[in-house]
Design a protein that fits this description.
alpha/beta; Rossmann fold; eight-stranded mixed β-sheet; 13 helices; 49% helix; 13% strand
Length: 310
């Protein structure tokens, strides 16, 4: 009987240890298996991909979750007309994360340090989805260093709450790291596929984007960063919204009329409160605009560049 009990305890424990060992092995070999497609910049170790072109430069900031690679289709369209740079937010892609919890302003400072290191002068700042609050914080915190602002299906209305899934919410608790490291890489890929189905709807998903997300988004550090970012934003977005009237640069807003992730109400809210904002509603579009409506995104960036304040 004692031997049976010992086996009943040992087998589940071995399975759990096996999951942790797999996650550790996978994360340890991540850079070797997936070398960074861009470069790490400045002391912040912010990772970005870049496409050469004419000034002004455009700095892209991705959503939650996501990576700099989300902007590759738009960058290809804009080059060589404009110089473009897409960053991994801290804790995503190949960028390190200095702190477990980071506000949009702290993430903006992380990117700003790298932008200054590269010597860009008053770039256009473009934020997609969760990258919208980070782009807004960048614009508000460094007003003399921004030439224009582009908000793409951006989160902006503090009254429209983002509801995390039950699984993601569990990552905020004391057992969050155990869940992320023990189960994330195993159950995460299925959640990624479901998430992208909603993000691309009503358009078909790009399977290459989904496959990339399965190995990139399900990294334990990124899973934890994503949950913590949504949690922090709930308290921080009202503070940002109270400062929207301070924005003094040209603003372009692109809203998707069938967006299941953020929703078009955010675009309406931003357009009503950002001085001189120009808003475009893309019909038949879901959230993942860079992939499904690449030209509409590129056109918004070009309009912002043409309106760039002197």
């Amino acid at each position: 009987m004692k031997r049976v009990l010992a086996w009943l305890i040992a087998l589940p424990l071995a399975a759990v240890l096996g999951l942790f060992a797999y996650s550790w092995w996978r994360e340890r070999g991540f850079v070797g298996d997936h070398p960074p497609p861009g470069k790490l910049h400045s002391e912040s170790r912010a990772h970005a991909i870049e496409a050469l072109g004419a000034e002004p430069a455009v700095v892209f900031i991705h959503g939650n979750p996501g990576s700099c690679l989300d902007f590759q289709p738009v960058m290809n369209v804009l080059s060589p007309r404009l110089r473009t740079l897409a960053f991994d937010r801290p804790g995503y892609g190949w960028s390190r994360r200095p702190s477990a919890e980071m506000t949009p302003s702290e993430q903006a400072a992380f990117i700003h340090e790298a932008v200054k290191f590269l010597g860009y002068t008053r770039p256009i700042i473009a934020g997609f989805s969760y990258g919208g609050p980070v782009a807004l914080a960048y614009t508000l915190d460094y007003p003399a260093e921004v030439g224009g602002l582009v908000l793409l299906a951006a989160v902006g209305d503090p009254g429209e709450k983002h509801v995390m899934s039950e699984a993601q919410a569990k990552l905020l608790g004391p057992a969050g790291p155990l869940i992320a490291w023990g189960l994330g890489p195993i159950v995460g890929p299925g959640a990624v596929a479901e998430g992208y189905a909603d993000a691309f709807s009503p358009k078909p998903v790009d399977e290459a984007v989904v496959e990339r997300g399965k190995w990139l988004i399900t990294r334990p550090p990124s899973l934890l960063a994503s949950a913590r970012d949504w949690h922090v934003l709930e308290a921080e977005l009202p503070k940002l919204a109270a400062r929207y009237a301070e924005v003094r640069v040209p603003v372009e807003i692109v809203s998707a009329n069938q967006d299941r992730i953020v929703g078009p109400k955010h675009g309406d809210y931003l357009a009503a409160r950002l001085q001189g904002a120009h808003k475009v509603d893309v019909e038949g579009a879901g959230h993942q605009l860079m992939s499904t409506h690449t030209q509409a995104v590129a056109d918004a960036v070009l309009r912002a560049a043409a309106r760039r304040s002197p």
